[in-house]
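Predict the 3D structure for this chain.
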Amino acid sequence: MFHRLAALTTLLATALVLGAPAAANPFETTLDNGMKIIVKEDRRAPSVVHMVWYKAGAMDEPDGVSGIAHMLEHMMFKGTETLGPGEFNRRVSAVGGRDNAFTSRDYTAYFQQVPPEHLEQMMQLEADRMANLKLAEEQFLPEVEVVKEERRLRTDDNPRALLFEQLMATAFLSHPYRRPVIGWMEDIETYTMADAQRWYDDWYAPNNATLVVVGDVDHQAVIELARAHYGTIPSRVLPGRRIPAEPPQRGPRNTVVRAPAELPMVALAWHAPTLRAPTQDEDAYALQVLSSVLDGFDGARLPRHLVREQEIAVAAGASYGGTGRGPSLFLLMATPAQERSVTEVEQALLAEIRRIADEGIAEDELRRVVTQAVAGQVYKRDSLMGQAMEIGFLELAGLSWRDEEALLDGIRRVTADQVQDVARRFFDPDMMIRAELVPLPQSTTTAARVSPLLRH
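Done. Predicted structure below.
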């Protein structure tokens, strides 16, 4: 659901997965009702991944119902006009498959992985809940409690998650990325079934959905199945997307989170460009490489210098996604070692950026980053789920699976001078967003909350 602090660059991972030579290029069409269909034939294993992606995530939510996209995701498993609660999962399991769903700031997606002969049944099930979801109070109210428990477990009882939640709320004043995907607890507590129904009615339409199928299939047969099951669902007029732009940052921002924890932590962020034009946005590629130089492999600068050599931190890293429907941040984060202070690790993080800005990086270091990234992604070429995930992610981020060569070329074009240039330009201390975790004593009576009802 939430973004990982990836060790390898998102764009390079995407490009390598999509560029794997063992599978054919995808086939794409659009049904008469506006639903996009993308099929990639990969016959190396008798399996198929079936995914439906809706262009509706946390960024589309109105104020006051933060997290309703995630709440509706839960309710999608609670039954339709013809299926009872939990029946969807049972039918997938009965054919030897697996299924789940996830919500992000940009989208909500549902998937099943099954033997190919059961693909049509998955389409029947997914099309049914696209058109015929049945919400009931006896299912809705208990699921609100499940979501509240999920928030407690994953955020309220997790000091690192609390820190990054507060960082996002500080980095964005207007843009909806400021809200957590799971929602603020105060909003979750006031959900009504009408809120969930409205979200479903607004966004769960075929003309707001993309079907991705990857596996041991014939693309023409898949498209015909999609036309038979999804093509009969009428399109709907979608609400206008009035996503507020983020106003210019006028100076440094700072926030402090006090929570039970063993060690403090500091996270530093700067607004950075999001890749929109794969053949032109050179800064985005250079920032991706910079992120990997700092934290892209075992010998990267932050873990090597701050953790192993200086022993000033027990963990240190960098993160830059650079893709998505909204704006991007470049993050640095570190947890100081015992007897070392937050100030020390913060200065050490900034010193690593300054060193690259002043001295640049060597050509062999640049090449090593690319080589390490390739090695780290080689096994993903054999993953049907990995291929489907990357196709869907690109499509919902405003890019396309057709951009694979441009993405590869963009990384290949990055020079050491470009990496030094972005290190000089994007890390103004007067534009820094800083979040610090101040540990409070941990209660000896606090036990980890685990609910068997949590799906994710």
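The chain has 16 helices and eleven strands.
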